[in-house]
Description:
The protein has helices at 18-27, 46-59, 78-98, 115-136, 156-166, 174-181, 186-192, 221-230, 246-259, and strands spanning 5-9, 32-36, 62-66, 102-105, 141-144, 172-173, 198-202, 205-209, 212-217, 236-241. The chain contains 9 helices and 10 strands.
Amino acid sequence: MSSLWKFGPSGLGPVKTALNVLEEYNRLGLKTCEIAFTYSIYIKNKEDAEKIGAKARELGIELRIHGPYWINLNSEEQEKIENSKNLILRCLEVGTWLGAKIVVFHLGFYGKRSREETYEKIKKNLLEIENERKKRGYTCELAPETMGKVNVFGSTEEIRKLVEDTGCNFCIDFAHILARDKNYRFEEVLKLFEKFDKLYMHFSGIVYGEKGEKHHIKTHKDEWKKFLKALPKNKEISIVNESPSPVEDAIEGLKFSMLSSD
């Protein structure tokens, strides 16, 4: 195992139990956690967020956020785009209170636009959010995610180009890459992002079909082994599991990483 790798689950749970949950994650050896704002940005109070962030720093647990599912920066309706921007900015604000590193989010659907038109539309909106982020002094970074359905914007190449064109961060979801491309493409994907010393990732079991991702499942041990074997040991890598049992699966990933030879 590389000492630079961190494992953890998607999900922290309610504010009232968050400090105890972080203590438990630390006891289990988990050093990252993605707070799920997927259905609601449920941490609303700055004082609560700062307490959670302080506890995480005390325990050496890196926090990140997953933004709401209904973001679409390529909508035909400008009102929906503005709502999406506001959701992302709110996540960035709360993330700054927490001391979180990144906000992971889905960018949108291709819809009626071509892939090229979609890229330009999303790039424009992402640049506007990035400018506003800097203006407001939010320290949490934007991290668009590689996506698992063929009709959703977010191929590995699209995300890499956005990083180059907007200066945003990124999240590589290898389960999504498998579902979209029918292959993990470990070597090729890691080559695309080789210049970055810090990599944020998702890795989980997944069920998929011709159109891509269907749903996450428990992460099989053989999949963990393939994934961990492919990772560079000289990079700081933060790995979050999104399976139906993310804590147990993250612990399993940690255990397999400790068994793997340097």
